[in-house]
Amino acid sequence: MSGMQCKKCGSANVKKNGRTAAGRQKYHCKACGVHTTTDEAARERAAQEALMEQLHLERVSQRGIARLTGMSRSTIIKRLKKDLSTHRAEHDPTA
Ligand SMILES: [Zn+2]
């Protein structure tokens, strides 16, 4: 994989344009002028996690989730645990 594509117009005519405060690479599309960050990895991870959660709700085994999402089982276990504790915290009246 080489280069970036503009998310808006699909042009490959994008130029690195510094970084955000969070350290994300920023891009400027010369074709349509849009400024964007490459949070593609983060988006991909979010999509994976959404899929993982959905499969988990469908009672797919962790092994099955690993196969379907391409995530490692240890990652899945960690994520699900974190997710559970997050939900618990949200519903904890003493929090
Ligand atoms: Zn563009």
Q: Can you describe what's shown?
A:
The chain has 95 residues and is an alpha+beta fold. The protein folds into 2 domains: 1-38, no CATH class; 41-91. It has 3 helices and 3 strands. The protein has helices at 40-57, 62-69, 73-91; strands at residues 14-19, 25-29, 35-37. A 3-stranded antiparallel sheet has the order 1-2-3, with no helix packed on it. The protein starts with 13 loop residues before the first strand and ends with a helix. The protein binds zinc ion.
Summarize the structure.
This protein is α+β, with helices and mostly antiparallel strands. The chain has helices spanning 40-57, 62-69, 73-91, and strands at 14-19, 25-29, 35-37.
Key terms:
alpha+beta, 3-stranded antiparallel sheet, 2 domains, 95 residues, elongated, 3 strands
What topology emerges from the helices and strands here?
Elements: E1 14-19, E2 25-29, E3 35-37, H1 40-57, H2 62-69, H3 73-91
Antiparallel strand pairs: 1-2, 2-3
Q: How big a fraction of the residues is strand?
A: 5-15%
Measured between the Cα atoms of the first and last residue, the distance is 45 Å
Q: Which residue ranges are poorly predicted, with pLDDT under 50 across at least 5 consecutive positions?
A: none
Number of discrete domains = 2
**What order do the SSEs take from the amino end to the carboxyl end, as H and E?**
EEEHHH
**How many β-strand stretches?**
3
Radius of gyration: 18 Å
| Largest sheet entry | 3 strands, antiparallel
Query: What do the pLDDT scores average to?
Result: 82
Percent helix range: 40-55%
Judged by helices, strands and strand pairing, the structural class is alpha+beta
SS summary, helix count = 3
Provide the spatial order of strands within the biggest beta sheet.
1-2-3
Ligands present: zinc ion
Overall form: elongated
